[in-house]
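dumping this here before i forget
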Amino acid sequence: MRDLLLRLRVPLLFGGIVLLSLVSMHADRRAQDGGGRELGPARALVLELTVPIQRMITTPVDLMRDAWTHYVALLDLRAENDALRAQVSQLRDENLQFREALVASGRLKRIAEMRDEFETPMLPMEVVGQDVSPWFRSVLLDRGHDHGVRAGMPVVTDAGVVGLVTATSDNAGRTMLLLDRQSAIDGIVQSSRARGIVRGRGTNRLEFEFVVSGAEVVVGDVVISSGLDGVYPKGLRIGEVVDIVSSPYGLTQKAILAPSVEFGRLEQVFVILWRAPTMDLLYEDPDAPASGS
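structure:
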C-alpha cells in the first residue's frame, strides 16, 4: 500500500491541486451570486490554500512562456544580424570593386592620354611573376609573341618607365626592370635640361650620371626620358633626384633618383608596340625572314 501511494503521489498531488482549484472557483462563483458576501471559514481556508498552489503552477508556466518568447526573439535577432552581416560584406565587396574600377579608370585615362601624346599603340599586360634573384630585376608578363609583343619594346605605366621586354614566348614576356644593373636610358632633367644616362643599381634607386659643365641639378628635380637613345619615347617620367654625389675631379657628376614607378606594387603595365631599329641588332625577330632566303 505504501509503495502504491509513493508511486501515485504525483498524480494524487496534481489531482488535489485541481480539486482545490475547482472548489475555489465554485466558492468564488457562489460568492458572486450571493452578492459578494464574506466566505465562511472553511471556504476561506480553501481559497487561501489555493492561491499559493496556483502560483506554483502558473509561475513555471509563465517562466516557460517568457523563455520561449525570448528564445524566438533571439532567433529573430540572430537572423537579422546574419542578414545585416551579409549585407555589410556585400557592400564592402561592392565598394572594393568600385575602388578598383576607379583606379583602373584613372590608369586607362592616363594611358589613353599617353597614347595620343606619343601616337603609338599600347598593349595592356598583367604582371604574373617576379624574379627574386638579387642579381636580376625582372618581371613576367601574361602576353607574348602571339599578341604582337617583341623583345626590345619599352614597357611603361601611367607613372613612368618600367623597363624593356627582353624575351617572349607565344603567350608570355619577360621585362628587365629599370632597376636592373644592365638597364640604361638616356634622361634629361625636366627643369634645367641637363642630360645624362640613367642606370639601374640593382636596388630601389637609380643612378643619373651627367656632365657637370653648365649643368644644374638639385634635389627634387624630375628626370624624364630624352628620346635620344631611340628606345624610349621622349617625356616619360624616370625618377626624382633625392641626392647628389659630388665628384670634384671628374667631368661628370652623379645624382641618385627615386624611381617614379613603384616597382614593388606593379600589377598592370603597358607595352609600347614599337621597337627601335637599333634593337634589331640585339634581339632577333622570329617573324623576320631568314638570311639568304
